[in-house]
Each structure stands twice: as C-alpha cells, then as structure tokens.
C-alpha cells in the first residue's frame, strides 16, 4: 500500500538509502566487537558506551528504513526479494530498539530478567543484518554478484559449476575456440553483463528493462525497444551511451564502470550486422575498425590484420593527436548540447573531440554556425542524416584540424566539395546518399591526405572513381558494390544503347 505519493523530492531523498545503511551496520559490528573484547580480554568498556551505541544503531536503522521505502517507490526491483529485504530491515530496526531498551538501566531496574535477553537479541540482530545486507546487494547488483568471480578451484569446493572458457566478463579476454565463437554470446553479452546487467536483471529492472534474458531484452522497457536491427543511429541504448556522462540519461550511470571505445565499436558492429543472437563471428562481415579488437581476442589472422591496419593508418590524425590543445569549457559543451549535439572526447590523454549530431536529424543550416564553436579541438564531425546543405559548408571550413567528416544522407551537392577541398588534414570522408557526381572528382583530388572515401548511392560512376584514383593512388573508395559489378553495369548500359540504335 502506497502511503505517500512519489515525488522528485522523495525520490531524491531515497537515493541516500545505500549511504545511510552503513551507519547502523558499522555500529552493530563495533558493538559485537566491543562485547567480545569486553568479555574475553582485559579491556573494560563502560556500559554507557554500549547504551549510546545501541541507541545510535536503532535511530539510524529506522532512518535507513524510511529512505529505503522512498527508494523502493521508484520501482524496477524484484518484488519478492524487495519485500523480504524490506521486512528484514524493519525487523533489524525493531531488534535494535529492543536491544537498546533491555540494555538500558531504566528497564533493568524494572525487571532483572531482561538482562538475559540482551545477548540473544544482539546475536539475532547481527545475523539479520547479514541476511538483509545480502538481499540488498542482490537487489542492487544481481543474485550472482558475489559468486560470479569465484575461481574454478573454489567453485568445485563449493559445489558450483565450473566456469567455462567462454564465460568471460570483459572484452579483451582470449576466446580459445574462435571458429565456434558466437558474436552475441561470447563478445556482446559479456559487455552487457559487466556494464548493464547490474541495473537491468531479474532482481532490479530499471525502466522495466531486463538485459540478462534475450527475449526480454528484445522486448525492451517502459520506453519501448532499445535497439533497431541494422540501425545504429536509431538504437536507443547506443544513443544513451553517447550522451555526456553528466547527463542523467547517460548509460551506464555516472560512477559506474563506463563502456570503453572498443566495446562501443563492437556494439555498433553487432547492430550493423543484424543484431544476431545466434550467428557465429565467422558468419559476419568484419570491418577494419573491428578487426584489431577481434585479433586481441584471438580471432582471425593477427599478423594479416595488423598489416591491413598499418596500411590504413590515419597518420595525419596521429600527428595532430600528439600535440595537445586547450580544453573546451563547459559553457561551450552546454551550447552544443542545447543545439541537439554532443561533444565527445577522443582520448583521455588530450583535449581533441568529436562533435556529433547523429541524434538530431532536424539540425539544419540555420543552426550550422555552432559547428565551428571549437575549431581547433574538433577532429571528427558527424552530420549524418541532418538537414544541412551547401550553405553549412562555410562553417565546416573553419575546422583546420578536421580529419574525419560524415556528411552521408545530407543535402550537399558538388558545389560543396570545392569548399571542403581546403581541409588539408581530412583523411576520412563519407558522402553516402548525397547528390555528389563525377563533377566533384576534380575537387576531391585536392584532398591529398584522404585515405577513405564512401560514395554509395551517389551519382559518381566507376570512371569517375578511376579518374580520382589516378590523382590519389592510395585512396580506398567504397562505392557499395564491387568493381566487377560496376563493370557489368557499364556493359549493360552499353548494350542497352546498342539495342536502341539497332531498333532505330
């Protein structure tokens, strides 16, 4: 039965429950310790100290119960364990008050018998404290939190099942049988287990979301599904990972172990490849970004992978990153956030950043001036699927250190490429789904440091690419189809023209 309405204030106060419970726990442990010292050593501790300590324990335990109730009203907890923990906490508070009363001189003067109740009450309180604490830990971290790290020798001794080679807890652990490894079970799930399941499990379901069960994970939480197959930008859990850590919707919450850059790459790759729960890694297409991560897990030919990565190395970017710049002030970060964008750090060792508007498809030319708000620090700029056009390019031109630029699925045309060609440090350019044609090839050839160029669903032809490759022989161009397929298409076009001429 709800006694009070849940408000922001009560929710805020309830968050102090995990802090408050440590006070009665600490005092109760000290009381037990003092009792042992008092009885089995030459140390003498006055009765008044015990009485005062018991009073503090009783008051703090009661206060922790109130805070725990407010916290429980937020929901998202296993109801059965929550109810047990609640009554155990109330019972502990009640036993603490009884222990205080039977130890006090006032009650002992009334009845000499009560002094014999003190030790049983103290022992019972101590045992109940351990049980309540264990259930509290289960609510917060999950039932297996205390046991999941148990080494195999102790697991055998305790009668627990042995931990298998694939039962790993973090990315970076070697997979011993890579040919049979599954992308979700052996790479993705360990990330979720370590970084997400503490708040989204059978006992604690923040946002009514469970991530420890595949069917419930697919179903999503109270806000709906949290991932979309083949759609990284539309996947809610990716959006939340990308939010600034200070944002209250950022996941994992501030203070928890955060998703690493390599883990984020793996999660995006999993979504892009169809978010399969049963496919083997060997069945998926592997990008150069993912290859070194898989190599660290013992998957793939490591030497070949390292050679490929070496060839695709972003040397200009590395040289820029080697020289640090001033940090971006908080007011600038807030301005970008208010415009629907994010400023994300590229490294812990310097102040260079990525500016992204992936989560704001309404971003348009009228907002574009903010793109240049941190001109020296911006190395990566992501404007994919926004409403910008050629009119926004003047602000992109103000980013002298820009090395990677995402303009896919925007309204830019060939006219913009002439302006982009001033970005001499650009090594990566994504123009997928734009109105770029062969007319832009001449200006693209001015980007002497360009290493990767994506041109799917554009008007650029194979002959345009070949012209570009003559100017930039080391450039990797991705048209979305193979060269052989393009040749076949060109042949088909020639045959069509020939047929038309013949018919005439």
Task: Please outline what is shown here.
The protein is 46% helix and 5% strand. It has 504 residues and is mainly α.
Describe this structure in words.
By secondary structure, the protein is mainly alpha-helical. It folds into three domains: 134 residues; 135 residues, no CATH class; 165 residues, Alpha-Beta Horseshoe (Leucine-rich repeat, LRR (right-handed beta-alpha superhelix)), CATH 3.80.10. It is 46% helix and 5% strand. The protein is built from 21 helices and seven strands. It has a seven-stranded mixed beta sheet, with helices on one face. Strand 5, helix 19 and strand 6 form a beta-alpha-beta unit.
Key descriptive features of the protein:
single chain; 504 residues; mainly alpha; Leucine-rich repeat, LRR (right-handed beta-alpha superhelix); 3 domains; 7-stranded mixed β-sheet; 21 helices; 7 strands; 46% helix; disordered N terminus
CATH homologous superfamily identity of the largest domain? Ribonuclease Inhibitor
Could you tell me the strand content as a percent range?
Answer: under 5%
Report how far the terminal alpha carbons are from each other. Answer: 86 Å
Supply the CATH class of the largest domain.
Alpha Beta
Q: State the shape.
A: elongated
CATH architecture of the largest domain: Alpha-Beta Horseshoe
CATH topology of the largest domain: Leucine-rich repeat, LRR (right-handed beta-alpha superhelix)
Taking all Cα atoms into account, the compactness measure Rg is 31 Å
Instruction: Please write the string of helix (H) and strand (E) elements.
Output: HHHHHHHHHHHHHHHHEEEHEHEHEHEH
Structural class comes to mainly alpha
Mean pLDDT across the residues is: 79
Order of strands, main sheet, comes to: 1-2-3-4-5-6-7
The number of helices is 21
Q: What number of domains?
A: 3
Largest sheet: 7 strands, mixed
Provide the helix percentage: 40-55%
């Amino acid at each position: 039965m709800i006694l009070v309405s849940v408000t922001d204030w009560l929710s805020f106060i309830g968050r102090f429950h995990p802090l408050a419970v440590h006070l009665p726990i600490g005092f109760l442990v000290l009381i037990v310790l003092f009792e042992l010292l008092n009885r089995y050593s030459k140390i003498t501790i006055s009765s008044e100290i015990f009485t005062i300590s018991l009073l503090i324990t009783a008051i703090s335990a009661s206060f922790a119960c109130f805070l725990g109730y407010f916290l429980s009203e937020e929901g998202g907890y296993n109801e059965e364990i929550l109810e047990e923990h609640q009554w155990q906490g109330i019972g502990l508070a009640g036993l603490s008050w009884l222990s205080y009363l039977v130890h006090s001189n006032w009650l002992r003067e009334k009845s000499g018998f009560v002094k014999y109740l003190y030790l049983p009450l103290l022992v019972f309180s101590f045992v109940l404290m351990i049980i309540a604490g264990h259930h509290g830990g289960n609510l917060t971290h999950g039932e297996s939190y205390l046991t999941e790290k148990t080494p195999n020798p102790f697991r055998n001794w305790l009668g627990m099942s042995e931990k298998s080679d694939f039962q790993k807890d973090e990315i970076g652990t070697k997979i011993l049988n890579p040919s049979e490894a599954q992308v979700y079970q052996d790479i993705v799930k360990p990330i979720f287990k370590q970084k997400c399941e503490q708040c989204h499990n059978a006992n604690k379901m923040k946002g009514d979301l469970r991530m420890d069960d595949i069917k419930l994970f697919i179903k999503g939480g109270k806000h709906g599904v949290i991932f979309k197959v083949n759609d990284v930008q539309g996947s809610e859990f990716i959006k939340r990972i990308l939010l600034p850590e200070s944002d209250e919707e950022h996941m994992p919450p501030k203070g928890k172990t955060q998703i690493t850059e390599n883990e984020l790459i793996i999660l995006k790759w999993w979504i892009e490849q169809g978010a399969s729960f049963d496919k083997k890694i060997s069945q998926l297409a592997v990008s150069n970004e993912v290859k070194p991560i898989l190599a660290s897990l013992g998957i793939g030919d490591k030497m070949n992978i390292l050679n490929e990565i070496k060839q695709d190395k972003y040397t200009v970017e590395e040289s820029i990153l080697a020289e640090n710049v001033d940090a971006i002030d908080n007011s600038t970060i807030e301005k970008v956030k208010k415009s629907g964008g994010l400023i994300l750090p590229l490294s812990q060792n310097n102040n260079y950043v990525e500016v992204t508007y992936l989560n704001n498809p309404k971003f348009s030319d009228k907002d574009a001036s903010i793109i240049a708000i941190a001109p020296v620090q911006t190395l990566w700029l992501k404007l994919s699927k926004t409403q910008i056009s050629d009119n926004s390019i003047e602000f992109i031109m103000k980013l002298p250190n820009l090395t990677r630029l995402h303009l896919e699925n925007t309204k830019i045309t060939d006219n913009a490429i002439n302006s982009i060609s001033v970005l001499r440090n650009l090594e990566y350019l994504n123009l997928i789904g734009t109105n770029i044609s062969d007319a832009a090839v001449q200006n693209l050839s001015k980007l002497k440091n360009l290493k990767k160029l994506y041109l799917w669903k554009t008007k650029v032809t194979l002959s345009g690419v070949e012209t570009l490759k003559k100017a930039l022989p080391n450039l990797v161009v991705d048209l979305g189809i193979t060269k052989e397929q393009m040749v076949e298409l060109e042949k088909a076009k020639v045959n069509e023209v020939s047929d038309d001429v013949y018919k005439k």
